[in-house]
Amino acid sequence: MHVIHAEAVAASVQSAATLWAAVIAGGAAMLSAVLAAIAAHRSGRWTQREQWWQRFTWACERSTNPDPGQSEVGISVLTALISVPWASDDDSEMAVAVGNAIVTRVRATRSGDGGRARRILRRWSLA
């Protein structure tokens, strides 16, 4: 008959408790790392969208400038902002709509420009 010593049982229970404590601590660390990664990703995405909005407003201001060179730079930046991956579909659609409105205004004010405003308008027909 086997005799189980109290010391052996106590050591076994202590080993199991230590193992479970390590597993729980490891799981908590993994969960914390995943949550931190998600938060960092969201923060980075928010920063990109905020920068997109700043560039968009800058480009709109430039696009409505009476100087044709400044206006062309603004239209070019608006065109580039449509295709950035962090802009939502709604943002891109808004950029196209605003761009078309700006081009329509430019076209009306530059009616004698030899078709330059029409070329800009065609470029905005990306959708």
TrEMBL record:
<keyword id="KW-1133">Transmembrane helix</keyword>
<protein>
    <submittedName>
        <fullName>Uncharacterized protein</fullName>
    </submittedName>
</protein>
<feature type="transmembrane region" description="Helical">
    <location>
        <begin position="19"/>
        <end position="40"/>
    </location>
</feature>
<keyword id="KW-0472">Membrane</keyword>
<keyword id="KW-0812">Transmembrane</keyword>
